[in-house]
Amino acid sequence: MSILFRAYPLARSILFSMDPERAHEVTMGMLQRAYDFAPTRALMSTQVLDPITLMGLALPNPVGLAAGLDKNGAHIDPLGSLGFGFVEVGTVTPRPQPGNAKPRLFRIPQAQGLINRFGFNNLGLDAFLANVQRSTWRKSGGVLGLNIGKNADTPIERAADDYLIGLDAVYPHADYVTVNISSPNTKNLRALQGEHELGDLLGQLQGRRLALADRYGRRVPLVIKIAPDLDESQIDVIADVVTRHGIDGVIATNTTLDRTGVEGLPNGAEAGGLSGAPVRARSVGVIARLRQRVGPEMAIIGAGGTMCGADAVEKIRAGANAVQLYSGLIYRGPALVSECVRAIRAARS
Fold first, then answer.
1. Dihedral of CA 167/173/177/178: which sign?
2. CA distance between the termini of the chain
3. What is the pTM of this model?
4. How many domains does the chain have?
5. Which residues constitute the domain of residue 213?
6. Of 183, 275, 283, 327, which is the active-site residue?
7. Which CATH number does the domain housing residue 46 bear?
8. Going residue by residue through the chain (349 aa), what tens digit of pLDDT does each one get?
9. 183 is catalytic
């Protein structure tokens, strides 16, 4: 393991003394500088291999980076160097937007949780695509997912317009495209998970995807990201709709509005989506139910509360083909990536 990764526990104590959003900015800046400087780049992780094929994409391992850590696609190359089998960036909206007022990110260390109410803060499609095209991750064979959303001031009944704009823009630059309909921090967004609303949205996106595939001569997989706050009947509806519309995969899950496990803890009552260890069980439950309904062929990417290798294995055994990390990286550092790959590989052997 890289000496840089071994130093993370010390760095974390310093970072956790800062405001969480500021600490995130500092971390991304340090990671970028380490990558840009050849001697330190050489000290960064070598990738642990456990190859799989997902949605027709050849992945060197089944552990990816979840969207949200790099909303503007500004640090794709250094993040990819941490050993991920695939990297997803965004969520990007058609127009720039500042997101919700600060503070909007809160740690709950006692529960290894985070609450955020960012509200899709990002620089918009133009800046996002410039960053994506500047990176070398895809050019060197890395698998890149681009995550699209709607602007906060776009009426929910016109949400499809924003998603179509996003799909048009990112399609030529993505290995897969994720449609984020499950953030709790954009008003009414989760209403798009309803049967009629989801069917209408996916029908339009699928039609546009067919046209884009003809234009660019390749079919880019479409994935939706769903919430953990769904009962079995809602999961069943989503499974039926995504199957009917030929969607390639589902990311399960986004953050939760439930506060089980953080009641009474500092920051536990903050508004926003809760991620990290407290969402693990909910995510696993959604994965298991979804797999029962969609059958063995559709891709499921497990996200939410993967804090150690055993958590990654739990998601795979529940029915996920691959997993994504976010909050676990904050608490455990980049060594978590190789730990999860090795645990999954050992569980399969």
1. negative
2. 22
3. 0.96
4. 1
5. 3-348
6. 183
7. 3.20.20.70
8. 565 667 788 889 999 999 999 999 999 999 999 999 988 888 776 789 999 999 999 999 999 999 999 999 999 999 999 999 999 999 999 999 999 999 999 999 999 999 999 999 999 999 999 999 999 999 999 999 999 999 999 999 999 999 999 999 999 999 999 999 988 889 888 988 888 899 999 999 999 999 999 999 999 999 999 999 999 999 999 999 999 999 999 999 999 999 999 999 999 999 999 999 999 999 999 999 999 999 999 999 999 999 999 999 999 999 999 999 999 999 999 999 999 999 999 998 8
9. yes
